[in-house]
Amino acid sequence: MPSSGVPPMPPSSNVPTTVTPSSGATVNSLEAEEISRRLKKSLSETLTRFYPFAGRINGCLVDCNDDGVDYIEARVNCVLRYILKSPDGDFLREFLPIQKDSNEAGTGRLLLVKVTFFECGGMAIGVSISHKITDAHTLSKLVNTWAALTRGSSEAAVFPEFGCAASFLPPSKDFNFTMPAMKLKHEKAVMRRFVFDAPKISMLKARAASASVPQPTRVEAVVALIWKTAMTSSPLPLPSVLRQVVNLRKRLNPPLPDNAVGYLLSYFTIKSPENSEAELQGLVKRLRDGIGEFSENYVKKLQGSDAISTIFEAAKEVGNLSGRDDIKFYNSLSWCRFCVYEADFGWGKPIWVSLAGEAPGPDIFVLLDARDGGIEAWVSLKEEEMGSFQCNEELLAFASMDPCVHC
């Protein structure tokens, strides 16, 4: 498993985690070497544009020292179809360049890549990136730019815009405070993948619609169903709070450009109804009201003179809520509409883009686009709660658990 550093191209150069399709033929050493050479060359060109990722974290700063990123190459003696037949979240960790619980995970490197070649000619590309300076939206732009440059399509590559946060986040005279942290419960959790195909989502949206929200979004309908099922799967009838992460780029006024890079996320929280048998329509309405209030109140404060205190108070509230034992605190993140299936490196668009790794803790939902227009939801719960969750009849009327990935 060779490893090498990939530096950025010189600034003057203008040279123009993802599973790619199988070519149907066994990949030999020379083919893999040539593919890897092309990937490293285009990654170097990508780092010329996304230059902070070739640097190192130094305290609260990023040292843009052009030290490069880690590139790991691996070859496995099995075919890709075997992996896709029965996807396993824990096994998928093997395709990541680093494990989150390793000694190297907390170092100053910002981007790591692992390319795995299969006997059949298929390939898996695993990417790990630091959340200290970036988010999933930025990661999708970086990967799609890398893919475009690999296939020789420089016009499709993105020139990122840095420093956009400065347009709404004024410099503070005093950063001598500690941001309150959300308290993830470090309890053993089980993560399962639930796939909502496009026709089932249409049916779910119809069931979730009401006079208050006549046209729920895909994400609203799926999150509401998962939240409802999780609440009914909990052995204790506790009230719950859902924290929904929001991409700020389109919420600000004026909106930030789509190629704005950085950690440009925020969130809002909503409480469950008093009745533990919360109906789907009511939860969708709470989600819609939550984003409306977030856009009307929080975003305006965020673009005002009290931006720092606004962020601090919101983080303090979430920190307090996540540490309480008398409520169930759920976290929901959506990676939908990030165009992850557009990352064509020159060998075809991905047949599957997914998460990998163990569950970071219980009570977490992560949504990604599926290839057919549906949604893949990775749900992390305590083992005893997952046993009830994965057997819920209403959930299974719209979702399939851990289905195979069709090539």
From TrEMBL:
Low complexity biased stretches: 14-23
Record's signal peptide: none
Comp. bias intervals (Pro residues): 1-13
Alphabetic keyword roster: Acyltransferase, Transferase
Top-level division of the source organism's lineage: Eukaryota
Entry-linked InterPro entries: CAT-like_dom_sf (IPR023213)
Pfam families, per database record: Transferase (PF02458)
Annotated spans, Disordered: 1-27
Family: Belongs to the plant acyltransferase family.
Identification of the protein by name: BAHD acyltransferase
Species this protein is from: Hibiscus sabdariffa (roselle)
